[in-house]
Amino acid sequence: MNFEIPASVEHYRTRIAAFVEREIIPLESQSASYDGHGNIAHGLLDELRAKARAEGLWCLQLPLADGSRIGLTGMAVCYEEMNRSIFGPVVLNSAAPDDGNMMVLEKIGTPEQKERWLKPIIDGQVRSAFAMTEPHPGGGSDPSMIQTRAVRQGDHYVVTGRKWFITGAEEASHFILIARTSDDPRHGLSAFLYHKDQPGWHIKRRIGIMGPEEHGGHCEIEFDGLEIPVENLLIGEGRGLKVTQIRLGPARLTHCMRWLGLSKRCVEIATAYAAERTGFGVRLADRESIQMMLGGLAMDIEIGRLLVMKAAWELDRGGFAKTEISMAKVHVANLLHRAADIAIQINGARGYSTDTILEWIYRYARQARLVDGADEVHKMVLYRHLDEAARGFWQWDVEGE
């Protein structure tokens, strides 16, 4: 097992680290940097995105200028570094949901679909959304429950139904929609592409949440006759479940990559404060209780990095990494919340205030245990694999076999 990273990936990592330190982190402490929903203001975002593109740090999840790829293992290294700042991923065009949408369109879109639907997202001209989750009794973690219908009428489909908690919908122009085209239990779902300006759908509301929001919020949307041409199907009718599998696995993992960066930032802030703050004649950093808190987080972050890297390696070599991704998702989601909580505790009232970004991360972190599958769903998936494989659940892959 080789835990070295290629020099080319290290080259990107160091450049990202320098860019984030120089261009982005100083902006976090300025109130003018934020929009009304706690994310980076649009004008500032445009300026930073132009700088990121000029420095060649743009869309690292896609083929580079020379046609090569850094792969998911390289992304794990770079995404962790870019999310040292809360604004880092969106500045480098590596934030959800555009990140996952670009990867799936690049992988399965036709040349025509890539030109029309993918290229504008890559160029930063539009934002996108992935519309799958529905209110009760529709589908959430269980896509077999999806009720939004797409009925074919000649050369197009007519869509009716509802979706909710659709990230980025208020500012998205390009949508990937998962809808039911038949009652077949395995091939009943299909994936479609549509544009915001098409009639037959509308946003009912932007749902308020406890944390800061991605641009475009989390919206409830309704379809009342949206017409989608047949050519806007992704990989054919009845292949919607396959599309979700292709998209959601890597997307869950890139969430973990970014969350590791935020977890490390929490430790960084807490460590710096503990080193300078004294109480009752003793530095916080010299107290055993503080050392145990921070040492435990350091260990858990490293465990998360190893879980993420193993899953990324498995995907890069053509595997599905279902158990690896579920393990990483549960561990890192809980780690992020714990890292923010401990960092706030060490910083005391300062951590609870807006003088640091810890309270921002803390509010953001709670969603991690829900998005892209709740903890309990992933643990259920792990149990099913354990029940099927028994002792083989922990087997090593043997070289050459």
Could you please describe the fold and organization of this structure?
This protein is an alpha+beta fold and 401 residues long. The chain folds into three domains: 116 residues, Butyryl-Coa Dehydrogenase, subunit A, domain 1 (Orthogonal Bundle); 108 residues, Butyryl-CoA Dehydrogenase, subunit A, domain 2, CATH 2.40.110; 153 residues, Butyryl-CoA Dehydrogenase, subunit A, domain 3, CATH 1.20.140.10. It is built from twelve helices and nine strands. Strands 2-3-7-6 form a four-stranded antiparallel β-sheet, with no helix packed on it. A three-stranded mixed β-sheet has the order 1-4-5. A two-stranded antiparallel sheet has the order 8-9. The mean pLDDT is 97.
In short:
The protein folds into three domains: 7-122, Butyryl-Coa Dehydrogenase, subunit A, domain 1 (Orthogonal Bundle); 127-234, Beta Barrel (Butyryl-CoA Dehydrogenase, subunit A, domain 2); 242-394, Butyryl-CoA Dehydrogenase, subunit A, domain 3 (Up-down Bundle). Helix content is 47%, strand content 15%. The protein contains twelve helices and nine strands.
